[in-house]
Description:
- The complex is a heterodimer.
- By secondary structure, chain A is α+β, with helices and mostly antiparallel strands.
- Helix content of chain A is 17%, strand content 26%.
- Chain A is extended, with a radius of gyration of 24 Å.
- The N and C termini of chain A lie far apart (69 Å).
- By secondary structure, chain B is of the alpha/beta class.
- The longest helix of chain B is centred in the middle third of the chain and has 16 residues, at 150-165.
- Chain B has a domain at 6-125 and 224-246: Thiolase/Chalcone synthase (Peroxisomal Thiolase, Chain A, domain 1, 3-Layer(aba) Sandwich).
- In chain B, strand 5 (210-213) and strand 6 form a beta hairpin.
- In chain B, helix 5 packs across helix 18.
- Chain B has a 9-stranded mixed sheet, sandwiched between helices.
- Chains A and B meet through strand 1, strand 2, strand 6, strand 7 and strand 8 of A and strand 1, helix 1, helix 7 and strand 5 of B.
- Strand 6 of chain A pairs antiparallel with strand 5 (210-213) of chain B.
Amino acid sequence: xxxxxxxxxxxxxxxxxxxxxxxxxxxxxxxxxxxxxxxxxxxxxxxxxxxxxxxxxxxxxxxxxxxxxxxxxxxxxxxxxxxxxxxxxxxxxxxxxxxxxxxxxxxxxxxxxxxxxxxxxxxxxxxxxxxxxxxxxxxxxxxxxxxxxxxxxxxxxxxxxxxxxxxxxxxxxxxxxxxxxxxxxxxxxxxxxxxxxxxxxxxxxxxxxxxxxxxxxxxxxxxxxxxxxxxxxx
Amino acid sequence: xxxxxxxxxxxxxxxxxxxxxxxxxxxxxxxxxxxxxxxxxxxxxxxxxxxxxxxxxxxxxxxxxxxxxxxxxxxxxxxxxxxxxxxxxxxxxxxxxxxxxxxxxxxxxxxxxxxxxxxxxxxxxxxxxxxxxxxxxxxxxxxxxxxxxxxxxxxxxxxxxxxxxxxxxxxxxxxxxxxxxxxxxxxxxxxxxxxxxxxxxxxxxxxxxxxxxxxxxxxxxxxxxxxxxxxxxxxxxxxxxxxxxxxxxxxxxxxxxxxxxxxxxxxxxxxxxxxxxxxxxxxxxxxxxxxxxxxxxxxxxxxxxxxxxxxxxxxxxxxxxxxxxxxxxxxxxxxxxxxxxxxxxxxxxxxxxxxxxxxxxxxxxxxxxxxxxxxxxxxxxxxxxxxxxxxxxxxxxxxxxxxxxxxxxxxxxxxxxxxxxxxxxxxxxxxxx
Lengths: 234, 433
């Protein structure tokens, strides 16, 4: 007989403080009962050639979710963020390096071999990019916000992250970047961002494209200024 | 191998709009009613008794619907309780996968008929939460929580295409002009329902707000509510309903990595498509797997080639007469035409610039207005596109649109492509009359 054992109970090594009451209040918030209702009239029908006026009742129905999520066997990456380190995994068979890390190598030749942890340099190259005029609500004050797919040096993957200290007009594919981890790391990928590690060279734009681009950036900055005051990216 | 021919004998759409305050089951009933109107011989009462028909349901998001197992409600509401039922879900690929599945069930010989019904409700959450509900189809630990929206991911893919192949902002705007103007005669489309029936120009696209450079509002899919339905049968059963069925002559589906960032060096794709790897230009550093990198959609390639093999198509550019690329963002039309072998890699923009994919060209694409103008009620989207191509091939556009001038009289074969995520999963269906 091979001896079996129980995996638990879990032992807490360390944890950050949080407001348990706030959390639990949110978990229970709403509970699906209507806060209010309205009754409206609008034309409806299966085609635009067969519309009839209909009456609808609409309720405002609240519901919230709060998750207790495990990062599984790639938890080391996120623990690394708390320590200011950028971690990846390496396959002992084929040598591919992953960041985002994989606990098992996905190279079909390696038969899902278990990988090992390596610390990565906080440097990389922009593989592609965008300039967000609509970003996450928590980052809206940083619009226009550059998002870059960054190939961390020595890895075979690209990690999406936002960029700071860069003129959106100048970001380009091939730009070398420094990778930073927020001092007050919360433990998710939003702790990671990049800044230019060299003088950026703008992509080629026609005169009309450049004019339009600058107008778009101005409009975006105006909106940010109007919404958040003077706290802008430039 | 049982390999029964699969016929489409009827199709219907309950139009896309946002909002449509009508319930999901009511929109589905509207679509299925249209099928019943088209097929006076169809007797729903026999379906449960005979157990030779299945229902294949397609919806994307339990969060947007505020309901798990929504298809149980739909099936019940349509009066089909007792029928073998099944739900398909794979993000944006959900509806194309439903059609692929339904076709394969008929080919298996287990069912004579499959009713495919798809829908989505996308207006009941705050728009930011709608974006979130869609975006969590991306990897929530590694892609979603990076500060990127879905728009931003597709934008980085397009930026890479512009850098590697020289696509321009004007190309993207021209695609948007084409899709919007294509939708103007379509009584199932959301764009004219909200914005009226006038044509737009490239300048109108430029005036629409920037979302995530290079993409502007008019170059992105609309979020929609709507439903659609298709009735598939085997060849023998089809004769009961119609003398002129349209056949599903080929199906295929494929996949790529969950995260687009894992594609450039993906060891599984290295050397898979050497002819495309050869087209990698010298001015850009060569990744380990130059196809698809971020510029193209490998899942479209594998799905399309499976479907071509299935349908016996050797030269898609010559043998296919109309195409519906699943286009949540304008640039996907151009990439998709390359990935599905309508042109060489990097030459999608040529098909656009030469007018080939316009309604008057010889490979009309997106004639319904597709996702940017007909709308994108996720679980319904590709089913509605299959319905539109079915109507074209069965010469019903005059009747179904009330716009006979939009009927393509000579078309014999059409391709409908769908995908989910950033091309994580794709499906292709080929129709033939």
